[in-house]
Amino acid sequence: MCGIVGYIGDENASDIVIDGLKRLEYRGYDSAGIALCTKDGMMVRKKKGRIKNLEDMIAGENLYGHLAIGHTRWATHGAPSDANAHPHCDRSGKIAVVHNGIVENFMQLKEWLISEHGVEFHSETDTEVIAQLIGIFYHGDFEDAVFQAVEKMQGAYGLGVICADEPGKLIAVRKDSPLIVGLGEGCNFIASDIPAILKHVRKIYLIENNETVVLTASSVKIYNAERREVHREVFNVTWDADAAEKEGYDHFMLKEIHEQPKGIRNTITRRMDEEGNIVLDGIRMTKEEIENFNKVYIVACGTAYHAGLIGKTVIEKLAGISVEVDVASEFRYRDPFVDENTLFIAISQSGETLDTLAALREAKRKGARILSVVNVVGSSVARESDDVFYTWAGPEIAVASTKAYTTQLVCMYLIGLYMGRAKGSLEDSVYRTYIEELLTVPEKIEEVLKQERQIADLAKKYYKRDNIFFIGRGMDAAVSYEGSLKLKEISYINSFAIAAGELKHGTIALIEDGTLVVSIAAQDRLFEKMLSNIQEVKARGADILALAKESNTAVERQADDVIYIPECMDEITPLISIVPLQILAYYIAKQRGCDIDKPKNLAKSVTVE
Ligand code: M6R
Question: Are 156 and 148 in contact (CB under 8 A)?
């Protein structure tokens, strides 16, 4: 959701904070702002729209100071506007706050501030309530005021707070929204995400829930909710700052599509010894524990949920155990059957998706063993899990998830294979076949990537369509959901995906002359059945863009256009067949002039319910 950055040190804080905000813009981008302690007191500048608008606004101003906080917003309370943009100040103008999250009891607090203290509000946000609350409690002791305000707040928050009376101090608070502290030489940082400050620091403190941090240029103190100081190990970031740059690609999404062979190679080979045995570092589950599980629950949101749908088929087949999949926002309110014999798998790129985190906590409360599949090292989901299976995709910046998805799929296969072997239910020859096939996936994706130009031409042909359907059967149905999500989130084309066999039970009524139906027929086993479904929609006027294996040329008799993928075992096709759909979505969105890396109304990391 929103991105926050703060700096305290010798350099000009406004330059550093604005640069950090640019690196966080993927987290939210409907307005941006900065608050700076200067020799003349607190200066706040904020503007609706992209960070560029903020930069244009302050160009030519001499904004100079050694302490600043900044924010890039994804609106929750109140529409995107200059007034609702962060930072927000208290009525004295001395306290400024940036906030990522939602204060659930903000209405009660607001009414109390109005009725008891006569506070006047200037925005519709919950964040202004925080600033006013701190202001009410401030009588010369900045830290105490923040602690008192936080005690009254319910909900999720990552906060950065500064006070004009104390230009040598930056305070940050975390509850259920990501927050890290960067440790520099003679300077320190706060941020909601590592890329914001990676240019300056590699030593990080991961802040835990209900902790408050007090930073000066030369010190960082972390306190728990009881105001007792706590010790924290330094976390060293090993990935390269360049990994979060575009490296000549027009968009992060395209770069990340191209990084899939590498990400998949990393995710597989880092977990395999020379004999092809899976070595799950960081996972402490014993053989006995695996044998005792009677159910697996996979819970996630969006693209990660689609990875879970494939995970269900794969784990059921390889490990011989029943798997349920659910979207996190539904799971947590459904009182699901979960107990100490359940393995709960949370999948999340960011590791900060609030619905997924809440579902994980619910499963934990019910006694389940928690295994998470996460990309961002040290994220909340990772930290709250019993075992973590990291995807080694590297930082994913584009809002549309691509390389995180394919590496999540790889994890599903590795978990299924590992469990199947541990339980003794998987024949060694089957295990070896899967491993051999998985190891060929990166080069098969490289083959697909060579078709980028042809797929871009198809995008030119189809980008003006108002409705695009996706159909598939079995695992191809799950791939069709993901292909459709990719397309709609970045191109804004109305798109719908459905299991092909379900079409005739209602949805086929929507097919008419010129409806484009992207038909995924990647599995040999279901190919003939898919041909029948393709015929059904073709007979009703649909145009067909089909996706099949190279040998299944019979599809050409039905389809207007075909994208071929290399031959592979049916069971691993989802790893390959999604790639042309990502490329298609990308080029359709490009043709339509969309802002691909930052689609409207979306944010990379969804840290609100
Ligand atoms: O960070 P997570 O994997 O938990 O995020 C889950 C979804 O919000 C995410 O996959 C979303 O659907 C993507 N924008 C899809 O491209």
Answer: no
User: What six digits make up the tokens of 542?
Assistant: 């649909």
Cβ of 304 closer than 6 Å to ligand 1, yes or no, is yes
For ligand 1, the distance from its centroid to the CA atom of residue 405, given in whole angstroms, is: 9
Candidate from 193, 252, 349, 377 with most ligand 1 atoms within 8 A of CB, to mutate: 349
> Which of 97-101, 267-271, 545-549 has the lowest average pLDDT?
267-271
Secondary structure of 32-60 as H, E, C letters: EEEEEEECCEEEEEEEECCHHHHHHHHCC
Report how far residue 541's alpha carbon sits from residue 516's, in angstroms, rounded to the nearest whole number: 9
Task: Report, as an integer, the average pLDDT of 581-600.
Answer: 96
| Structure tokens belonging to residue 258 | 């191209």
| CA proximity to 106, closest of 132, 142, 138, 71 | 132
C-alpha 603/C-alpha 399 separation (Å) is 6
Give the DSSP H/E element, type plus range, for residue 599.
Answer: none
Could you tell me the pLDDT band of residue 238, with boundaries at 50, 70 and 90?
confident
Is the pLDDT assigned to residue 371 strictly greater than 80?
yes
The response to whether residue 605 sits with its C-beta less than 6 Å from ligand 1 reads yes
Which residues touch 127 (CB under 8 Å, ≥6 apart)? 77, 86, 88, 97, 98, 99, 103
Residue-wise pLDDT for 88-109, tens only, equals 999 999 999 999 988 889 999 9
- Does residue 487 contact residue 584 with C-beta atoms inside 8 Å? yes
Closest by CA to 251, choosing from 604, 477, 590, 3, is 590
In this structure, which residue's CA is closest to atom 9 in ligand 1? Answer: 302
pLDDT digits (tens, 9 = 90+) for 164-196: 999 999 999 999 888 999 999 999 999 998 888
Asked whether 301 lines ligand 1 (CB < 6 A), one says yes
Residue 329 Cβ inside 6 Å of ligand 1? The answer reads no
DSSP strand E in 167-210: where?
A: 170-175, 180-183, 188-191, 203-206
Give the residue-averaged pLDDT of 555-559: 94
398 lines ligand 1 (CB under 6 A): no
- How crowded is residue 521: how many other Cβ atoms within 10 Å of its Cβ? 30
- Cβ distance 44 to 52 under 8 Å? no
Q: Which of 309, 331, 353 for a ligand 1 pocket mutation test, highest count of atoms within 8 Å of Cβ? A: 353
The residues annotated with a catalytic role in the active site are 2, 604
Interhelix angle 428-449/403-423, rounded to 10 degrees, is 170
> How far out from the chain centre does Cα 566 lie?
30
Q: What's the CA gap between 354 and 360, in Å, rounded?
A: 10
Which parts of 138-279 fold into alpha helices (H)? 142-152, 252-258, 260-269
384-402 burial, b for 16+ CB within 10 Å, e for fewer?
bbbbbbbbbbbbbbbbbbb
pLDDT score recorded for residue 272: 86
